[in-house]
Design brief:
Elements lengths: L2 E5 L3 H12 L3 E5 L11 E4 L2 E4 L9 H8 L11 E3 L4 E4 L5 E4 L6 H9 L1 H21 L11 H7 L3 H7 L5 H4 L6 H9 L17 H9 L2 E3 L4 H13 L3 E3 L4 E7 L2 E7 L2 E4 L2 E4 L3 H8 L6 H8 L6 E10 L8 E4 L4 H9 L11 E4 L11 E10 L12 H15 L8 E7 L1 H8 L14 H5 L11 E3 L10 H15 L3
Parallel strand pairs: 1-2, 1-13, 2-9, 6-15, 13-19
Antiparallel strand pairs: 3-4, 5-8, 6-7, 10-11, 11-12, 14-17, 14-18, 15-16, 16-17
Length: 488
């Protein structure tokens, strides 16, 4: 039995803690925040409850497997329900699309909303997504990946590698879509990893395929309930937790990890699993020279975009009710230029994403709880703490909503603002980047920091490590690490 210290109680850290405790190790989690869940947070304004992180669960079987393989049953703790339609899209010309939950209904819905050729073109693209998922789903996402040689070994032949085509971009993959609205819809999936569609590999076409083939799901009461269930399960497995306990360093010697420094005190450990942002880990916590190569690689990557969020407690209800809405701007490229360009700045005419669950547990009867997000550059390049900036930009976002047909300004009972500076303070992510490293470029997308560090005894999970960000992938990173460490 090893003494395992986990840095961070985000979903990756919790998943790793559960698996390692079930395998017989003594597991202790140290979390800088006063609670668990990481970016899967929750905020309450009076009688209104808001998820402040992910609002859609894909691949729910990943968490069902996690519970089942560690002696639990996820469905005893949470009620996972389909989101239908998956999303309501409004395009710059005023046309709209309700994307269905059921895969077989997607092409007819596209044809009805965007024209008879749209469904056929999208279906061809999703066939490519299915082929890519067959190539990377099991071989890449479920296994350790440590550099180009591993990627080549996992590719069964040259044809497979050519199909993955890491040099091709998502934007390039969308050139076969004749309708600019279809191309805009495809581009949006780059933001699922906080990235730029003009730079993210075409491999990202697996994301809409996964969403449509496996469906999009919601947890009644909010996705935070998923974190509640996993934290409770960890406790049942004997995991110990220390909250408001920031780790300030990792102690190593010639043999590898010796332990952590927490609040100035040394805590011995045989194994350390880091759920911290990889940039933060290598910049602030780890000085061991064996990590120099990973540090240099991270210096070449670009952190993901961040988000500017409004939490709106609204009187009355919106007709028709839609769980997810995406309202596109006239110039999508201008948004990515503002976020990822040489001179980052708040987006002048942003895409607006709104989540308003039809869930009686998150708002009083006859009212709605809206989570409104726009893509934003990180804190640092933009000083989101500058006096007046956040309030002025919040007013601008509400005005953009109104201009696109959703004027809720006279319905606001309470509002709260979350800026990239808040995300950085609350989660420790660099500049408040929502997904750790972006997937801008083939190396960043496919060769994230390895789960096994070059420092013996140090392992990485979470969104900034392989296989990437998002609720399913961080749980898969924990499964990889648990297999690498093995049973007690």
């Amino acid at each position: 039995m090893a003494d395992v210290a986990v840095i961070g109680a985000g979903m990756g850290g919790l998943a790793a803690a559960a698996r390692l405790a079930h395998a017989g190790h003594a597991v202790t989690v140290f979390e800088a925040a006063p609670t668990y869940g990481g970016k899967l947070g929750v905020t309450r304004l009076g009688e209104f409850t808001f998820d402040t992180g992910p609002s859609l669960l894909t691949l729910p079987h990943v968490y069902r497997d996690l519970f089942a393989e560690t002696g639990g049953d996820l469905d005893e703790h949470v009620d996972i329900v389909p989101v239908d339609p998956l999303c309501h899209y409004r395009f710059p010309d005023g046309s709209v699309l309700d994307l269905p939950h059921a895969e077989h209904e997607v092409a007819p819905a596209l044809a009805a909303a965007l024209g008879p050729d749209a469904g056929e073109q999208w279906t061809r693209l999703m066939s490519r997504g299915r082929r890519l998922w067959d190539l990377v789903g099991e071989p890449v996402l479920h296994r350790p990946l440590n550099g180009v040689p591993d990627l080549l070994r996992h590719s069964r032949n040259v044809r497979d590698l050519l199909a993955i085509a890491p040099w091709r971009t998502l934007r390039g993959a969308g050139r076969g879509l004749a309708d600019p609205r279809l191309r805009m819809l495809l581009d949006r999936y780059a933001t699922y990893t906080g990235s730029d569609p003009r730079r993210v590999p075409a491999l990202m076409t697996v994301v809409p395929y996964i969403e449509q083939h496996h469906g999009g799901w919601y947890v009644q009461g909010g996705l935070r309930r998923l974190a509640d269930a996993l934290h409770a399960h960890c406790r049942e497995l004997g995991v110990r937790f220390h909250f408001a306990a920031p780790v300030t360093g990792i102690d190593t010697d010639g043999r590898g990890v010796r332990g952590l420094r927490v609040a100035g005190e040394s805590v011995p450990a045989d194994i350390v699993v880091s759920d911290a942002d990889a940039h933060h880990l290598h910049r602030d916590l780890l000085t061991d020279p064996r990590a120099a190569r990973a540090r240099r690689a991270l210096a070449r990557t670009q952190p993901s975009l961040s988000g500017f969020v409004l939490l709106l407690a609204l009187r009355g209800t919106t007709t028709p009710r839609r769980h997810h809405r995406v309202l596109f701007p006239a110039d999508y490229d201008a948004e990515f230029d503002a976020v990822f360009g040489q001179r980052p700045r708040p987006v002048d005419d942003p895409t607006v994403y709104a989540c308003s669950p039809d869930d009686p547990t998150v708002a009083p009867p006859g009212h709605e709880a809206w989570f409104v997000l726009v893509n934003a550059p990180r804190h640092g390049p933009v000083d989101w703490d500058a006096p007046g900036l956040a309030e002025d930009y919040a007013d601008k976002v509400l005005a953009v909503l109104a201009a696109r047909g959703l004027d809720v300004r006279d319905r606001v009972l309470h509002r709260a603002i979350r800026t990239p500076a808040d995300w950085e303070r609350d989660t420790g992510s660099v500049g408040g980047s929502l997904y750790g490293s972006s997937s801008n470029g083939a190396r960043a997308a496919l060769l994230r920091p390895a789960n096994r560090s070059r420092v013996p005894g140090l392992f990485l999970v979470g969104g900034s490590a392989h296989p990437g960000g998002g609720l399913p992938l961080v749980a898969l990173s924990a499964a990889i690490v648990a297999r690498l460490i093995g049973p007690a």
